[in-house]
Design a protein that fits this description.
It contains twelve helices and ten strands. It is an alpha/beta fold. Helix 6 packs parallel to helix 7. It is globular. It binds 2,4-dinitrophenyl-2-deoxy-2-fluoro-beta-D-cellobioside (DCB).
């Protein structure tokens, strides 16, 4: 009899152990469960110092495809497993610098939507045609100062201060001094993660490794396009990490570097396997329905309803499956 009771108790205990915790967090990779992010060595970690990997989508330019940075669209990416959203706020090309108040309101609405979904969210100062971040450092400083104050108590928010420096911009003469200035403005209010780009569309991360910034909770962005960038750029990631530089892939595409061509799924899988082995976080370009191969949605897909596999482009059918 006693034997039988013991064996029933043991099976009950084993059953309990195989069930998930009674009260799972609202989203295992979300901000409620993980809190303020921090960098430990080269690894992104949660508030408890446990490694955390963020996966999600980048918006396209807010001023062109703002509907895909709304609550339903962000929720849709979460439903596919994302815990990160990147708000790409173009500065040039008719973006923030041309209409600051309207675009800022759009960016804030997108950030608030991601926060409401318990996701981490990147505020991206998306320089591109304006290749040198120094060209609009005053505007950037005012913008990030305001954002850091607004979100000083919101652990969800990450600050990407210069998407892709290019043209003649150098690390030592332009990007580093710019980053020092913006970092200071952000740190006056917030301890949130700051993501820093580098020359050649955020590929020259080795220049940052030779002369890194001082400060806490900084990561360096590396951007790649699977049809254009291969092993040599992955090797560069290993080189800089060996020197202690924390890396975050805040933008990558399954297309070629112009956002089109391909789609290069085999090359993308090779890249994502590489990132996964190293617990490197990423955001994919881009959540929109533009007629280009990097776009996640088939042309004409409405932003205001849930999406099925049928709505996804070949790129997103692959990428969403890797969240
Ligand atoms: C980056 C930019 C991003 C750009 C994508 C794809 O630029 F951060 O804004 O997105 O990569 O090129 C594209 C959109 C197009 C849009 C165009 C201009 O997909 O719909 O018309 O921006 O706004 C890169 C990245 C890498 C390289 C070059 C660029 N590269 N670039 O290695 O040569 O010149 O835009």
């Amino acid at each position: 009899m006693l034997e039988r009771i013991v064996s029933v108790l043991i099976s009950a205990a084993m059953l309990c152990a195989s069930l998930p915790d009674a009260a799972p967090p609202s989203s295992p990779g979300g901000a409620k469960a993980n809190g303020w992010l921090q960098v430990v060595g080269t690894q992104l970690c949660n508030e408890r110092g446990e490694p955390l990997v963020l996966h999600g989508m980048s918006s396209h330019g807010l001023h062109w495809f703002g509907q895909y940075a709304g609550r339903q669209a962000i929720m849709n990416t979460k439903a596919f497993g994302a815990n990160l959203f990147r708000v790409a706020m173009y500065t040039g090309e008719g973006g923030y610098l041309s209409q600051p108040e309207a675009i800022k309101a759009q960016a804030v609405a997108a950030v608030d939507a991601a926060v409401a979904e318990d996701m981490y969210v990147i505020i991206d100062w998306h320089i591109l045609s304006d290749g040198n971040p120094m060209a609009h450092a005053d505007e950037a400083e005012a913008f990030f100062s305001e954002m850091a104050r607004r979100y000083k108590d919101t652990p969800n928010v990450l600050y990407e201060i210069c998407n892709e420096p290019n043209g003649g911009a150098t690390w030592q003469g332009d990007v580093k001094p710019y980053a020092q200035r913006i970092l200071k403005a952000i740190r006056a209010h917030s301890r949130g993660l700051v993501l820093v780009g580098s020359p050649t569309w955020s590929q020259d991360i080795h220049l940052a490794a030779e002369d890194p910034l001082e400060g806490e909770n900084l990561l360096y962005t590396l951007h790649f396009y699977a049809g254009t960038h291969g092993q040599w750029l992955r090797d560069r990631i290993d080189e800089v990490r060996a020197r202690g530089l924390p890396v975050f892939v805040s933008e990558w595409g399954a297309s070629a570097a112009d956002g089109s061509g391909g789609v290069f799924l085999q090359e993308s899988a090779q890249w994502l396997d590489f990132l996964e082995e190293r617990h490197i976080s990423w955001a994919n370009w881009s959540l929109c329905d533009k007629n280009e191969t990097s776009a996640a949605l088939k042309p004409g897909t409405p932003a205001g309803r849930p999406w099925t596999q049928e709505d996804l482009s070949p790129s997103a059918a692959f990428v969403f499956g890797r969240f």
